[in-house]
Structures are given as structure tokens and as C-alpha cells.
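Input C-alpha cells:
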């Protein structure tokens, strides 16, 4: 099977000016800026399992690229599941406008995929510009320190296994895990530490 490049790679390749090649662990050091790094969970409306379908995935990549061009952020880690996504962003210093960015991203993807979402409920939501594809709220957690960052990065990369989609992290194409492997931060056969295995779903905004 041919792997699709992950969203994080796509954004980083086109937009991230920071070159961290050959600097193992630089990702973690770079990202820990007090008050600037956040973990998010965003879920689809009624947990529709559509996000890993090509049109949605492609729209999401475009949305991240477009919004990043106008409102920059670094995508530190990312995983896309069929009905939700988790990611970690670092925003520019003094800029905490993540809600604005999420509104733009959600609207962009909703509009780009509107013809594919058939439910009458979501169509009426869209007419009211309520972002029919998505749940209106999202989970946000401010990363406290490097330890907290590592915990959340591991949680993200382990998530496809946690949700039962694959047996090995390496088999899930829709995450920044593959970028981390290329950069020497993980071995290809990486498996999560106990922390991420045992983590309570409600602490990470998992869809219930
Ligand atoms: Ni999850």
C-alpha cells in the first residue's frame, strides 16, 4: 500500500521555516514555549466516520495550509481518525487565537465537502453557517512543560492503536508519526509508554 503523506508533513514541508533535520529531540525543545503550545481534539458532528476519506483528508490539508498562511502556527504533532482528530500546535508568542484558526479550518473543510455530507440535519446546519461537518466545541489543553508535551505527543501517535484501528503505530498513515521516524525521534517499531496506554479518555477530549 502506498502511504499518503501525513497532514503534519504536508504543512511542515510547505510552510514551516524551521529546519530541525539532524537535530534529534529538537522538536520537543522547540515546542515548549510557555503558554504557546496546545493540544486539541476536534470531533465530527454525530461522530460521522468520514475524515480519513480522501476528499475530507485533502480538504483538511488545504485548510491547514491556507489558514497557516494567514495565521501561522506550527503543527507539532497530528493524528487523524475517521471521526476525530488530535493535534498539537505552537502559536506565535502573544497570539492565543486558536479558536479563530479552528473556526476557519472547520468552515473551509465543511464548505469543501458539503456535497458529500448528505444528512438533512447537517445541510440545515450548514445553511446557518454552523459548520455542519463538525461538533461545535473542541477540546483544548495548554501544554505545561516538556514532560506534558512528550505525554501528549505519545498519546497522539498511539491513538490509532488505542482506538483499535491498527495493531502497530507504523501501520496508520494519517499521523505525524512517520515524520518523527524520519527525523530520528522514534524507531519505526515504536510503541507507546505505559502512560499513554493507560491514559483516561476524558483527559484528552476523546469523543464519548
Ligand atoms: Ni482519539
Amino acid at each position: 500500500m502506498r502511504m499518503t503523506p501525513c497532514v503534519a508533513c504536508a504543512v511542515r514541508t510547505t510552510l514551516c521555516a524551521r529546519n530541525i533535520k539532524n537535530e534529534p529531540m529538537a522538536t520537543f525543545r522547540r515546542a515548549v514555549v510557555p503558554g504557546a503550545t496546545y493540544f486539541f481534539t476536534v470531533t465530527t458532528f454525530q461522530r460521522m466516520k468520514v475524515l480519513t476519506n480522501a476528499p475530507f483528508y485533502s480538504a483538511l490539508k488545504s485548510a491547514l495550509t491556507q489558514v497557516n498562511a494567514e495565521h501561522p502556527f506550527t503543527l507539532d504533532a497530528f493524528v487523524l481518525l475517521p471521526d476525530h482528530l488530535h493535534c498539537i500546535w505552537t502559536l506565535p508568542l502573544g497570539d492565543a487565537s486558536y479558536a479563530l484558526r479552528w473556526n476557519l479550518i472547520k468552515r473551509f473543510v465543511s464548505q469543501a465537502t458539503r456535497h458529500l455530507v448528505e444528512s438533512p440535519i447537517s445541510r440545515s446546519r450548514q445553511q446557518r453557517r454552523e459548520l455542519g461537518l463538525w461538533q461545535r466545541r473542541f477540546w483544548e489543553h495548554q501544554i505545561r512543560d516538556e514532560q506534558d508535551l512528550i505525554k501528549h505527543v505519545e498519546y497522539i501517535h498511539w491513538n490509532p492503536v488505542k482506538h483499535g484501528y491498527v495493531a502497530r503505530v507504523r501501520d496508520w498513515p494519517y499521523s505525524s508519526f512517520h515524520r518523527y521516524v524520519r527525523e530520528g525521534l522514534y524507531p519505526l517499531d515504536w510503541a507507546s509508554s505505559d502512560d499513554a496506554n493507560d491514559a483516561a479518555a476524558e483527559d484528552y477530549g476523546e469523543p464519548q
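Helices lie at 7-15, 26-31, 54-70, 98-113, 120-127, 146-162, 177-182, 194-198. The chain has one domain: 5-20+31-182.
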